[in-house]
Write a structure and sequence with these properties.
The protein is mainly α. It contains seven helices and no strands.
């Protein structure tokens, strides 16, 4: 693995040197290095390449679309409740968990599935946004809501 890491560092140096001469070529080289480093699990080399790309104004945030099957059974249970529109306190109550535990599960779920928020999680799990609560007897209709004929 030593020569593989050495070659990554050579390419990193090449990419950083190109930033002065030809920025587009530098971006291409640094993106390749970042991808190779990520594939090899070479985190330091990947970080250096990504930092160099950010210095060139390239957005380096990547959203990995992972399979929800990678979730633990409890995370899947929490994810389904999130996708159904439940809040963290509601999930905690339903599953007899502490709110902090639910927060940790939600963070892990978002990271594992590669989504940024609860809405994207619902879309990823194939759920739609929850329906508005039905009106109670005697409650006036919302003036801004569309009226069914």
């Amino acid at each position: 693995m030593g020569f593989v890491l050495e070659s990554l560092w050579v390419e990193l140096d090449r990419g950083r040197a190109l930033t002065v001469i030809e920025a587009k070529k530098a971006v291409s080289v640094l993106e390749t290095v970042a991808d190779r480093a990520a594939g090899l699990g070479a985190r330091n080399e990947e970080r250096v390449a990504l930092r160099s790309l950010r210095a060139l104004g390239v957005r380096t945030w990547r959203r990995a679309l992972r399979d929800p099957a990678s979730l633990t059974p409890r995370e899947l249970e929490v994810a389904q409740l999130v996708a159904d529109g439940a809040s963290n306190p509601e999930i905690a109550e339903a599953l007899f968990l502490a709110r902090k535990t639910v927060e940790r599960h939600v963070s892990n779920i978002l990271a594992k599935t590669g989504v940024r928020n609860r809405t994207e999680l619902a879309a990823r799990l194939g759920r739609r946004a929850p329906e508005p609560a039905p009106r109670r007897m005697g409650e006036l209709p919302d003036e801004s809501a569309p009226v069914d004929p």
